[in-house]
Amino acid sequence: TDLLIRKLPFQRLVREIATEFKQEVRFQSQAVLALQEAAEAYLVSLFEDTNLCAIHAKRVTIMSKDLQLAKRIRGDRF
Are residues 11 and 32 in contact, defined by beta-carbon separation less than 8 angstroms? Predict the structure, then answer.
């Protein structure tokens, strides 16, 4: 499917985070693409669950407490 986040900003973010752990890090372009696809799939799924929590609370607007509840139900630690 099409990506939701532009490639270059995502690539910059990956490199920024990676340099916090090791200075000279290199990535194959396919590795960054795989990271982006996985990250987007996770976020889309999380926001779907977050929206369900808001709907259950009879709201149409998601709130941070919906996100926290969705993560807790899923067992996400991050």
Answer: yes
Does residue 70 belong to any structural domain of this protein? yes
Q: What is the 3-state composition of the chain as percent helix, strand, coil, each rounded to the nearest 5? A: 65, 0, 35
Residue 1, pLDDT above cutoff 80: no
Q: What is the CATH number of the domain that holds 22?
A: 1.10.20.10
Q: Which SS3 state, helix, strand or coil, does residue 73 take?
A: helix
Q: Taking the CB of residue 57, how many other CB atoms lie within 10 A of it?
A: 13
pTM summary value: 0.88
Residue the block writes with tokens 């977050």: 50
If one counts the domains in the chain, the total is 1
pLDDT in the model for residue 36: 98
Tokens 């976020």, residue located: 43
